[in-house]
Amino acid sequence: MNPFTYTRPADAAAAIHEAAHAGARYLGGGTNLVDLMREGVERPAALVDVTGLDRTITELPDGGLRIGAAISNTALAADRRVRTRYPMLTRAIVAGASAQIRNMATLGGNLLQRTRCLYFYDDAARCNKRQPGSGCDALEGFNRMHAILGASDACVATHPSDLCVALAALDATVHLEGADGKRALPFEALHRLPGDTPERETELRPGELITAIELPALPMARRSTYRKVRDRASYAFALVSVAAALEIEDGTIKDVRVALGGVAHKPWRARTVEALLRGQQPSEEVFRRASAGELSSARPLRDNGFKVELARRTIVAVLSQLAGGRP
Amino acid sequence: MSVTGIMRTVLRYVPDALVPGTRPDDERVRHGHVGKPVSRLDGALKVRGQAKFAAEVAIEGLLHAAVVHSTIARGRIASLETKAAELAPGVALVMTHRNAPRLKAPEAFGEGDGVAGSNLPVMQDDRIHWNGEAVAVVLAETQEQADHAAGLVSVTYEEEGAVTNFAVAQADAHHPDSVLGEPAVLAIGDAEKALAAASHRVDATYTTPPLNHNAIELHAATVEWADGKLTVHDATQMISSTAGSLAKVFGLKPGAVRVLSPFVGGGFGGKGLWSHQILAAAASKLAGRPVRMMLSRQSVYRLVGGRTPTVQRVALGANRDGGLDALIHAGTVAMTTHNNCPEQFTFPARHLYAARSMRLEQKVADLDMLANTWMRAPGESVGTFALESAIDELAHEMGIDPIELRRRWEPERDPTSHSPHSSRHLVKAYADGAARFGWDRRDSVPGRQRDGEWLLGMGVATGTYPYYRFPGVKARVRLDADGQVTVSTAGHEMGMGTATVQAQHAADRLGVALENVAFEYGDSDLPAGAMAGGSSQTAGTVAAVTAAADALLAQVLKLAGNDSPLGGLRTSEVVARDGGLGHARDLARHESYGSILRRAKRDFVEAEETGSMPLEQMKYSMHSTSAMFAEVGVNAVTGEVRVRRFLGSFDCGRILNPKTAASQFRGGIIMGLGLALSEATLFDPRSGRVMNPSLAEYHVPVHLDVPEIDVMWTDIPDPQAPLGARGIGEIGITGTAAAIANAVFNATGRRVRDLPITLDKLL
Q1: Residue B686: which of A141, A235, A313 has the nearest Cβ?
Q2: Which residues of A touch B71 (CB under 8 A)?
Q3: Is residue A67 part of a domain?
Q4: Please, which pLDDT band fits residue B61 given cuts at 50, 70 and 90?
Q5: Which residues form the Aldehyde oxidase/xanthine dehydrogenase a/b hammerhead domain (chain B) (predicted)?
Q6: Would the CB atoms of B638 and A314 count as touching at under 8 Å?
Q7: Which CATH number covers residue A299?
Q8: Contact between B516 and B483 (Cβ < 8 Å)
Q9: Which CATH code fits B185-211+307-468+618-762?
Q10: C-alpha to C-alpha distance for A107 and A305, rounded to whole angstroms
């Protein structure tokens, strides 16, 4: 770990001011950044601790929620409004990490956690994300955990978050504040696909701070869920995860939200599934066709071909469960 | 015939009474402590955080160490730039092969009395032998400063062609000189011919991945030099031999190195002598200051070996009556040219079943990698996976219950050594286990039991582990005039209950209350103790304490003289009881130790002895066995496997402490769950580098993976083992993976022969 300065500003403006220094990074719970510093992957010169900033949940006039980015994962998951209005979000959060880590981790930090690709973590390996232009040792290496959708020859890493998969499905909005002022991004526009610049993971501008997340009013999300498939019962990253909500009216799918985790460089909003399902009568066969449509663009690697079938099956199982009225 | 073979043959004709170490033990030691579920005596200390582990020993002026690891598998260091690190804040020095003290190479296991994981010289030249080998050690005032400076050392290499692909290296596999003293090839009859002629046969290949040690306590050594003597506060399961080996490496007289290791946070075979203790002592010598080296989790993966991968063929041929006509178990493991751990996967097949013909063969493929090492039941853990899976396949093929098939193969004598069994009750373990587990509820047709999305299945397998007792274990017993007993031996407490069980034994042996016994261990200045390996420490220590106690009691009887109620009695006529000596049958004839010692004007009496030669294991076939039962659910959608319940039914001789024993059995089974379902070291065959050196990416079972685990035992004393007890530390992991794989087959009809059984293999 390299030497760094540490400040804990009292408000967003002060934090943004501090983060203007070269090599500064915002610090949430540190559950990912500090690990990466220990491994020498991240070497910030200054840490700006933003855990003292807004962590409240406020009601929006239309029934949505605005959530301060410094809230802990535990507090967010446990909030009664979140649990009843957006159960998929609570389920996604508690499917992640361990209780101790969730107590430390923050919402803002969760959005910016970095891939767990083994070659990204190891200084001795080639990684275009860690060292642009050096190559990718995962392409022909251990890539069982890696992306099947939207990857490039430069990078096949996945985004590790569970929480973000739910946010993608819920059409959340990300509120940002930087030296140039405030702005908002649709959640889906926050993370990037790797392309030729896998080192650029989000659309954040230098020094920009995530201040809050807004969840829109979404009555259908009351019947929503999150299913995570992994290599042990707890404390493992998703091989495939599915966040979904389903609204059925008069035997027809009126609206549907599906997002996938563990399959791409970003939380993957399954727009194809959604488009193929709207207006259809729910059945396993319909769900199967829709999931196959989404996965038709999958490009599996040496070790992760099973993810294609696993994603198909998990989508079908989750939608069938929701259609059967079992949230 | 080997020397061992000749010894076995000769001993067969020698009566038990004349063979030291084989006297049935022990009617005189029945005072109610041994066999009781006494809670661990060190438990309170640990819960309160008062037990000091190797990395917690405070020494004035301590420097902290960090290791720089090589990033190639084979070649030489071309350039080594340490200036930036040396100038970094808090750095005392950077040690490399250029300035390291000149040291002798350690002896590896199997060489002389060596115990090192590898016999490579430690930081003596510019050669690189594996990816991750230490190339520099940074000493600094704080751990953070050392870690930071380690990142500033820059190294370039001249790479040479390295063999790091096990699949490729198998082409050049060869027989090792021996497999722990046993022949690498063992043939009885013509097994291939018998297989070809058999009415029923299976012939399949099973593979197991490399695995790493993940004891909760990181490997650590806090070292200090004073007056040319070295003190090492180590986390080790081999105190006495580590002290001896370090003395040789540093060219010191035996006794000039003291190793202390009062508490070890898990060993499992991995807490031996590796390069880090040598590096810490060398750097401390160079710096002239005490040094603490606590390896990071990643450094443990790079410097401490684990279980080697295996490729195993098992072929079984049975006749119409189910008799086993042919048993073939052959395969290859990865090893290096600088160690000797051939992962004895054929050992179970040597002893378990009555086969009319047999071919057992072990090969090793030499890789440029960190030396592999012992890991809980080396050989038997992975060997039983292959053998016991194949038996399940054959039973299914034949339409016979797999327990019944094994019952038909129960041997009258050891199938390869032909020695009689000292005590073998596997059939009873199966019967008891089957009744408790509800085996009769199993549907023998796979894939028919379902609970919602989950396919359910039951599986069974045999576990086995040899009885070992190593020679040369010493113990000292001291009796004070106030009736206090102190037993001293350089043994190990790694959390398994050594101190508790040995105190129970000494209390019974000396006829005193448990609270009057102190058990001293964990210090090489004490009489040379048993290593905590081969599940042998308890038996070895008990034998040594028995010898010392016998000598002590003889002294006490002599001191009692003729003015005592014991006057005129011979040692064979007295027993230790009620805090003194008494006549074996005449309860009125008794005198307390205090009374005897005070009359003799002695403050204390003590005796030090070496345990009897362990000839019992040469005369008899001595093995523990178990019947392992698993019930699993396999998710029909995702392929996820969850073990729903598990039962281990053990035949391990007498159980000395049911509470600590149950924990040992359960711990072994939990490690077996990891072997079966989730653990694998990702060793990149391109670079020879371990890519998942962390508890996040190397998947040991978490709480949610561990179901209710039931354990039971026959508790039938082994008449040839000290206190009737065979070892129990390792057997729990054996048979577990096969029981689970067999249950997965019963649930799904899918046979997974490649561990771990991850969900992608069941989609």
Answers
A1: A141
A2: 123-124
A3: no
A4: very high
A5: 48-161
A6: yes
A7: 3.30.390.50
A8: yes
A9: 3.30.365.10
A10: 32
Across the interface, do B148 and A3 touch by the CB < 8 Å criterion? yes
Chain B contact present for A180, CB below 8 A: no
Which of A2, A39, A124 lies nearest to residue B689, judging by beta carbons? A124
Task: Tell me the residue range of the domain where A237 lies.
Answer: 221-323
Q: What angle, rounded to 10 degrees, do the helices at A284-295 and A306-323 form? A: 140
Of the CA atoms within 13 Å of residue A216, those in its CB half-sphere come to: 11
Residue B23: its pLDDT value, please?
A: 53
What pLDDT score does B5 carry? 63
Indicate the residue of B637, B692, B702 with minimum beta-carbon distance to A232: B702
Show the tokens assigned to B504. Answer: 């129970």
Helix (H) or strand (E) holding B138: strand B134-140
- Can you tell me the mean pLDDT for B478-482? 97
Residue type, B229: K
Cα B669 to Cα B376: distance, rounded to the nearest angstrom: 11
Q: What is the pLDDT of residue A325?
A: 72
- Concerning whether B380 is annotated as a catalytic residue, the answer is no
In CATH terms, B61-161+216-266+271-303 corresponds, of 3.40.630.10, 3.30.70.890, 3.90.1170.50, 1.10.260.40, to: 3.90.1170.50
**What is B470-612's CATH topology?**
Aldehyde Oxidoreductase; domain 4 (3.30.365)
User: CB–CB of B596/B603 below 8 Å?
Assistant: no
Measured between beta carbons, which residues in chain A are less than 8 angstroms from residue B131?
124
> Is beta strand B474-480 parallel, antiparallel or unpaired with respect to B454-466?
unpaired
* Chain B residues within an 8 Å CB radius of A2: 148, 151
pLDDT value for B1: 46
pLDDT 10s digits, B521-537? 999 999 999 999 999 99
Best probe of the A interface among B644, B677, B691, by most A CBs < 10 A, is B691
Place of tokens 């094994």: B406
**pLDDT digit string, tens, across residues B676-710:** 999 999 999 999 999 999 999 999 999 999 999 99
Q: Which two structure tokens, joined as six digits, stand for A96?
A: 């992640």
User: Residue A29 maps to which CATH number?
Assistant: 3.30.43.10
Taking the C-alpha atoms of residue B580 and residue B483, their distance in angstroms, rounded to an integer, is 8
Question: Averaged over B31-45, what is the pLDDT?
Answer: 93
Strand pairing report for B623-635 and A65-68: unpaired
Among residues A11, A162, A8, A12, the alpha carbon closest in space to that of A73 is found at A162
* B763 touching A (Cβ < 8 Å): yes
How do the residues of chain B divide into helix, strand and coil, expressed in percent and rounded to 5? 30, 25, 45
Place of tokens 């990204």: A120
Tell me whether domains B61-161+216-266+271-303 and B185-211+307-468+618-762 share a fold. Answer: no
CA distances from B123 to B100, B128, B157, B276, B629 (A): 7, 9, 15, 11, 48
Task: Let me know if residue A211 belongs to a domain.
Answer: no
Rounded Cα distance between B162 and B495, Å, is 39
Length of chain A (residues): 327
What is d(CA B391, CA B263) in angstroms, rounded to the nearest whole number? Answer: 41
Q: What percent of chain A has pLDDT over 70?
A: 99
pLDDT digits (tens, 9 = 90+) for B413-433: 999 999 999 999 999 999 999
- Residues from chain A that touch B299, judged by Cβ atoms under 8 A, are none
Q: Domains in chain A: how many in total?
A: 2
Tell me whether residue A281 is in a domain.
Answer: yes
CA-CA-CA-CA torsion sign (B202, B203, B207, B213): positive
DSSP letter assigned to residue B38: P
ipTM score: 0.97
**What residue ranges do the domains of chain B occupy?**
61-161+216-266+271-303, 185-211+307-468+618-762, 470-612
pTM higher than the cut 0.80: yes
What is the side-by-side order of every strand in the sheet holding B517-520? B517-520, B485-488, B474-480, B604-610
Residue pairs spanning A and B at CB distance below 8 A: 83
